[in-house]
Amino acid sequence: MAAENATNEQTWRSTRMSIEIEDDFDAAVAKYEEAVPTYPAKRFAELAASRTPWEEVVRITKQLTPHAFLIYWKSPADTIMSLAGHSARSAAYLMGNHVKAETMYPHDPTSLLYVPIRTLITRIDGENPRFTFDQPSTQLSSLDLPTITATGLEIDRQLALLLEHLEWTVPTRLIGSNSTAGPT
Question: Crossing angle for the helix pair 25-35 and 146-166, nearest 10 degrees?
């Protein structure tokens, strides 16, 4: 049996946001994926293999991210779920920015639990699509480190700017995120 002092448990509150989208599902997915490019894994693997200086990685990342984010992973979950007879549509993503993640990493690598951000576009029959995510600052504030919480607030603002670009509703809490739900 593991020693009691080998574990650490923490409970905190997180805010999930779900935004109704006026586009149809396929148009919403296309619009999102156009605004948030796919992470070029092969290119960054080559940079890592050649030990490219971090400053160059930052420069390249800025060129690739017109709206601050990259898509690191996508799952068209509805494809497999349709085999069970389900008609809901969904596309799940991991969206983030490794340059932003790096600013938190030296303070607490556990921050990588929350970045990249999980995002989801869904549509249930008879309803408009929705874009859903957990507010980054409420996730990151659980680490109880001011530098990481501040970065979480910055990610909130970048996400608000992305939503504005997409012409999707921007939740008020993302814009003025000075109140995060930290550890309880």
Answer: 120
